[in-house]
Amino acid sequence: MARRTNTGQSTTTTSNEGLADDNGSSTQSPGGGGVVDSAKQAASQAASQAKETASHVIDQAKDQAASQVDQGRQTLASGLGSVAQAFQSMGNRLRNQDEGPIAQYAAEMGQAMGGQVERLANYLQGRNMQELLNDVEEFARRSPAVFLGSAFVLGLAASRFLKSSRPAPDYSTRVEDPAHLLPPASARTGNEVGANA
């Protein structure tokens, strides 16, 4: 609603719509304020719903990754258990053959290696992933040089393994037929045909 004030020299027109009062809040017309508030509320709800959905997706991804890592840990522990049994079996066979001091030494080494690999397999089976990570962090803090050297050697071993496990390229499909490179017989000139005869 507009109001006119006459102070003698100038006339001022004021309107109540959209002006701020002394408290700092604006006064709106009865129909306009609800739309803005409902839009703000809808945006706020959409944002909180998006945050909740993103959090849920991240939690699912973390759980799935942890499950796959745990399954890999169990598979590695099982494989190491088989390797330990093979070393111990080799040591027992060499010991039973009584082939001399070198065979006895190899038998003892097989037994010792089998025992160490078995300890590692039991260690992996008895720990969850968080405990393993904590142990690795603690080891890296105690002896960083050994940790970095071990990481380097493991990286080299992994790269060699991956390189050797990839299938060899098939060169036979890439080699072109040498006859294919020659021009067709119909493209030869008459002089060449007469010279060959």
Characterization of this structure:
The chain is mainly alpha-helical and 197 residues long. Among the domains are: 58-126; 129-164. It has six helices and two strands; from the N terminus they run ββαααααα. The protein has helices spanning 33-97, 101-126, 129-142, 144-165, 178-181, 190-196, and strands at residues 2-6, 11-15. Strands 1-2 form a two-stranded antiparallel sheet. A hairpin with a 4-residue loop joins strand 1 (2-6) and strand 2 (11-15). Helix 3 crosses helix 4. The radius of gyration is 41 Å and the shape is flat. The termini are far apart. Residues 14-29 have low confidence and may be disordered.
- The residue-averaged pLDDT reads 77
H-E order:
EEHHHHHH
**Spatial strand arrangement across the major sheet:** 1-2
Fraction of residues in β-strands: 5-15%
Number of strands: 2
How far apart, in Å, are the first and last alpha carbons? 115 Å
Based on CA atoms alone, the radius of gyration comes out at 41 Å
Poorly predicted runs are 14-29
